[in-house]
Every structure is written in structure tokens, then in C-alpha cells.
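Continuing the series of single-chain predictions for the mutant panel. This is the parent chain; the variants come on the following pages.
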Amino acid sequence: MKKALARKSGVFLLLVALIFVFAAGAEAERQRFGNFEIYVPYGWTVERSNVQATFMAPENVAALSIIVDTATGTTAEEVARDLSGTHGGTTPEAVEEGTFMFSFQNEGGVHSTAIVVRMDDADLYMIWVIAGEHPQLGDLIESFQWIDE
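Parent structure:
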């Protein structure tokens, strides 16, 4: 009798644990976009193009765009300067070797930050544009994972 009760309580605890796992999983879905994967929070929308994926918070209060593209013969600094000039942004600053950051206001007047990173491949660049604020934005950014193929 005690063994059956212990077994039932063990099954109950396992079911409770599974409910929490599935509930947590429902909050974000891991999706792949070319060479990277990211957890997209529940309620966020995604727009995709050939080289860009944009993740928008509910009510469009925040967004993250990730662009992976080639820029043959240009440095990360040149890419950052060109983008900053196009968007009327600040002078790009080196964050670390091969990584530059600048800020600008988008068409809606929302403050945005852009980060340009040269990948291991000399011609491959990743550009992150972060706009607005949302409590899940940090989790979205932290869930990013580059996939080497």
C-alpha cells in the first residue's frame, strides 16, 4: 500500500513538473533564422526577409532587428559609419575589435541602438538594431545562439 501511494505521489510530482515545463515553454518558442536561433516570446511578431529578421513586442513598444549579410571588402567600422550616416546617427564607437555601436532615432522618433559585428568570415556581418523598451527584450537578446554549419 505504501509503495503504491509513493508511486502515485511520484507520478503526480512528475505531472506537476511537466505542466510547469510546458507552461514555461509556451512563453517562448525557439525559432531558426538562417544561421541563428532565438526564443521568440509569446505575443511577439516576427517579420522576415532574405537577410533580416525583426522581432516586435506586443503593441510594437519595442523591436529587435537582426541582419546577417555580406559586405565584401568593407570593415565593420565602414559598415557602421555608412548605416549611421544613412540614419542620422551618432559617430560609431568601437566596443571591441570588429564591433561598433551607434544610436539614432527611427522614423517614429524612437531611440534606437545599432551594433555592427564582423563575424569570423571577413565578409560576413551581423547588425543588431534595438528600439524601444519591453521587459522581455533582454531575454530575447540573451536567447540568441549562432549556428555554425
